[in-house]
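#data-curation
PF: Archiving a pair of folding outputs for the training set. Convention for this channel: one message per protein, sequence first, structure tokens after, nothing in between. First:
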Amino acid sequence: MLFGQSYFLRFDPKLWRAMQPYPPLGTLIAAACLRQRGFDVALFDAMLAASEAEWDAALRRERPAYAVLYEDNFNYLSKMCLSRMRQAALGMVRSARASGATVVVCGSDASDHPETYLDAGARFVLAGEGEATLVELMDALRGRSGTAQAIPGLVLRGADGALLRTPPRPVIRDLDALPLPAWDLVDVDRYRSLWLRRHGYYSMNMVTTRGCPYHCNWCAKPIWGQTYNSRSPERVVEELAYLRDAFAPGHIWFADDILGLRPGWLTRFAELVEERGLRVPFKCLSRADLLLRPGELDALRRAGCRSVWVGAESGSDRVLAAMEKGIRADQIRQASARAREAGLQVGFFLQFGYPGEDLPDIAATLRLVRECAPDEIGISVSYPLPGTRFYERVKDRLGAKRNWVDSEDMDMMYRGPFDTRFYRSLYRVAQKEFARDRGLRRLRRGELSSRQLLGLAYHAATLPLARAALGYRTLTSRRGEAGLAPELTHDQAAQPAPQ
């Protein structure tokens, strides 16, 4: 079996410049599951590949009976279903089918649009979480069990060519039962070299959970729905010990949607890390309200957390309520301040362009960034994805384009408050203002290199021009589309869905 995935870092210019590559963790776990069942597995890692031609070379080299395009569902970009990556995936499906392999596909885009992948030559699409479905499918195809049509979680063509969906498969609850990722399939030395050359340290990725039980109405959840399942702290520490002993990373990226949601999980994890001397600096994602729970930030610090990212999204309570985020701007401010007091860096994810957002709301978001002074920010615009309540409520405003080309696209794909040109101008202003203010803080602390000093000068000098361009766009691109009334109250949105 040849496993692959279609996220090519080279096809995403912004992230290629950032050069923080991680192997496809979800793909590695699926490969480990099949190897555990006695299958011979190989890996094509698109992350650092130059193009789809390397997949073709892998097909010729491995001559697989089965080609499994298993996307890394822990990579948030796979949920965005970028059109350049879809183009690559469909080309890989066609190549694998032409080579004579039986093609199986698993991923967010395939779960949303199975017919697209079946028409390209895939024989089966795994809908949602894929490991258990893939194991049962392979057993059926090898004659070890019944027919594929009896397996939950599949989409295929029936004898008449019609789309056939088997019943949905429940998600895996006992994550500790899964094998560790098949790291031996990865060219770890190549990743290490790139990280050391660009950043001076080597970072590896881990996950402790699957899913998110909160209600943000723009967030796509085609794989795990609104479920949240967690590995035990003991099992996570076992994996951390393995990575340290085998590869000696200087940093860990916990790719969970939310690290340590269950009460007491982080405290127990920190205790085990301290007991075994496994403290490795890491970054993770959380929520502002969770960071305000007693002992949360202390446990993160003790476990080795260096930076924590939160989905701030907006500085406007009105917009946060419309998003059904379940968080208020004052909680973001408090969480940011307390994280700093605990010695942690803070990152903000920000989102502009939600229905009904107006200039005062945008100003509130920019003010939030200035006041909280996060160490990093990531900016996006509202992106309607199938399966979300946001998509259902704005689908009559959608244009012909339904997916971004890459993560830097920033196209408004629905008729929002302003047009695409406005938001691209706003993106430049927000980024330049943030870079200038962060540079000034570092300058005062004597932490700027000569190269960073040049960057500070550039952003300070070009910010007025960027603001002028934004002012022009403000006058010429307003659409005034109506907002969306939330279906949940703040208290309802702040409570995770029952599990």
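PF: Second:
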Amino acid sequence: MRDIKAALQGKTVRVDGTVDHSSDATTPHLKLFAVTYHNQLQSLGKSKVLIDDKLLDGISFWIGGPAQREISSNLTSLVAELRAIVPRDFPVFTGGYITYSSIGWTEPAPFYDLLRQSVDMYDDGRVQGFFLFAGSVLKSMNSSLWQEWDLPGQLEMDYFPHLGTATVAVTTTEQQKIANATATVVYGSATHVTRKAVGADGSFTFGGWVGKKAKTPHTVTVAAAGFRTASAAVQLEAGKTVRATVKMQRL
């Protein structure tokens, strides 16, 4: 696992397949996650070496497809069990199956139950995102299945109304544009949203969650050669594009 993570982060892989751990990491921003299922919580609790030794950067947590119908309503409590095992700021993603290999198409109601709970947990920082499995099958849905699932309608009720976008200008304290910079966007205190290259015009755009129970700002942090790293809080507005500026001081 140490070799896998080192290779993922861009350390040199020798011809014989071994990894030079003393080499520079060329992609240090890449993260290593593991998939964990609801029936593996006890095993995870007994053996946390991958988490404690910081070999894993997060967990993708799933209720197994065949159990999705019966225990979808338990997701929030299951995530609470998982949160009791991992560090407070450890990223956890949830997910729901539209189709599963052993049973085929699942049912819409349990899936949307998982989605709604995940949206609420994302809202207050308990999970960092939701995966849909598998988006590639949507194109093979027949008309009756598409109508039964009504993905656009469901997302319009529970998801889209709480999204906004921002255009962020990156400048010097003298109002000069800065290109060739990298921006990282975090929702709340710990949820990584995106990593963006600042464009030649000295700006970038991102989209994100506004906040359902209460508005929660995103933190934008920008790094550029020759400048001090700078941050700014950006509060998105539902259905709108807001504008913000991050000012950087020269070293």
